[in-house]
């Protein structure tokens, strides 16, 4: 196994120099110590099976330098992305994990959005969901320059989404590595939605290792959308952890479009009776991209529900892997869990793997999983062609419809136009034609 210790570009001195309050400095050093003692991820491990993780050369990256402000190009990109979200309650700009600005907008009184490095800020609920973890999570613990904390107090309803734009620097030798950290807590009986957009600041190689922790307290409703739009030389190794308490609900949607290697792992634990999680994921592979989606639906309490749907397509020489586990723990009686993965393979050189798994320790439960991997359905093609649609156009319509359904049902309606535009742009480039995705083009 490859050891994490003695990397010249990731040292305790660099972690210590990131500054911030004492608790954050201490947490970084604890994270670095844990990281230095661990093995780096390996393709020999089941959780990294089918991935190219053995080719990750951490010595070719360095932690990004924390900078203040945005240049004109970055500001233009932010304006373009945010302009397609028709309404929002607040906007936070983050550059390489460091919070640049927070615009509160019309947030209700009592809702807090804070940077951990800010004077007078309180220690957020960091580490309560994603605790410990592999070497990459520990790397985030050690080198996250800041923590973005969002807390919605008891009984408060935030009707518009809180939007977070993560700009990630690219290019250089060593290439930059960014470690964004986000903690969102919906307290008892509250409602809120958060949209995170990860976008490149310039061309070239980069490594992005974000960690998001989502806490839905008793009776709360939390919606979360993550859209990844990095450049084609980036590695994205994302981790989302969620904890859903009694009678609470989480709706999460991850969309991976960019990156050379795009990996998103979502662990959702329903830990209180009556808790619900709804996980959605979509990806589109082009060129030689690799999209890697891993999920855990963890039932630790009785009468809990989870529903997962992952849809993706691979074209060119790209490939994908979906690996998901439904775990029903002892005592989680009357739980109900579903897991569905559908994959379109659009080119003979493309490849998709689907690996659903069940781990059930109770009898009185309902669990199901289903997966499909294959080309565009011949019956659907025949139906369209029999009505005068040209074969190439028929395939384009079917692929567009494949994505339109899941995008239109995103848990945050305000972000649907942006998702539609970005998916349509990727499909247009992939299929060499502008294709509709079920909505108007709101770009610009």
Descriptive report:
With 444 residues, the chain is an alpha/beta fold. The protein folds into 2 domains: 12-379, no CATH class; 380-444, no CATH class. It has 7 helices and 22 strands. A hairpin with a 2-residue loop joins strand 2 (90-95) and strand 3. The radius of gyration is 21 Å and the shape is globular. It starts with 11 loop residues before the first helix and ends in a 13-residue tail after the last helix.
Write the layout of secondary structure elements.
Layout: H1 12-16, H2 22-37, E1 61-63, H3 72-82, E2 90-95, E3 98-103, E4 112-115, H4 135-143, E5 148-152, E6 162-169, E7 175-178, E8 181-186, E9 191-201, E10 206-208, E11 211-216, E12 221-228, E13 234-244, E14 249-256, E15 261-270, E16 276-285, E17 290-299, E18 305-314, E19 319-328, E20 336-345, E21 351-360, E22 366-374, H5 378-385, H6 391-408, H7 416-431
């Amino acid at each position: 196994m490859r050891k994490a210790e003695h990397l010249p570009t990731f040292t305790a001195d660099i972690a210590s120099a990131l500054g911030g309050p004492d608790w954050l400095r201490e947490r970084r050093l604890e994270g670095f110590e844990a990281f230095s003692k661990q093995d780096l991820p390996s393709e020999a491990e089941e959780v990294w099976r089918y991935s190219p993780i053995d080719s990750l050369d951490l010595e070719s990256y360095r932690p990004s330098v924390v900078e203040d402000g945005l240049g004109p190009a970055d500001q233009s990109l932010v304006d373009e992305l945010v302009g397609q979200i028709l309404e929002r309650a607040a906007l936070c700009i983050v550059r390489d994990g460091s919070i640049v600005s927070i615009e509160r907008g019309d947030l209700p009184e009592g809702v807090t959005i804070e940077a951990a490095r800010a004077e007078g800020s309180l220690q957020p609920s960091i580490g309560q969901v994603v605790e410990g973890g592999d070497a990459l999570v520990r790397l985030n613990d050690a080198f996250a320059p800041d923590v973005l904390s969002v807390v919605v107090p008891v009984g408060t309803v935030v009707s518009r989404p809180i939007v977070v734009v993560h700009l990630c620097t690219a290019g250089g030798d060593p290439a930059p590595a960014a470690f964004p950290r986000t903690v969102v807590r919906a307290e008892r009986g509250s409602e809120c939605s958060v949209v995170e957009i990860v976008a490149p600041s310039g061309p070239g190689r980069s490594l992005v290792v974000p960690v998001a922790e989502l806490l839905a307290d008793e009776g709360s409703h939390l919606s979360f959308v993550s859209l990844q739009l990095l450049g084609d030389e980036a590695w994205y190794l994302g981790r989302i952890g969620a904890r859903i308490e009694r009678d609470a609900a989480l709706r999460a949607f991850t969309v991976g479009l960019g990156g050379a290697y795009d990996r998103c792992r979502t662990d959702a634990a329903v830990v209180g009776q009556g808790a619900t999680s709804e996980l959605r994921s979509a990806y589109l592979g082009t060129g030689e991209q690799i999209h890697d989606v891993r999920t855990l639906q963890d039932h630790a309490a009785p009468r809990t529900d989870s529903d997962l749907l992952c849809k993706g397509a691979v074209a060119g020489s790209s490939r994908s892997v979906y690996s998901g586990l439904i775990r029903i723990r002892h005592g989680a009686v009357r739980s109900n869990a579903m897991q569905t993965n559908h994959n379109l393979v659009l080119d003979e050189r493309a490849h998709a793997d689907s690996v659903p798994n069940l781990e059930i320790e109770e009898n009185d439960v309902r669990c199901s999983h289903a997966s499909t991997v294959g080309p565009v359905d011949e019956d659907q093609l025949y139906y369209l062609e029999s009505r005068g649609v040209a074969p190439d156009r028929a395939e384009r319509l079917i692929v567009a419809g494949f994505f339109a359904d899941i995008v239109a049902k995103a848990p945050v309606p305000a972000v649907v136009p942006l998702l539609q535009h970005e998916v349509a742009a990727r499909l247009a480039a992939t299929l060499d034609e502008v294709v509709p995705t079920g909505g108007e083009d709101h770009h610009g």
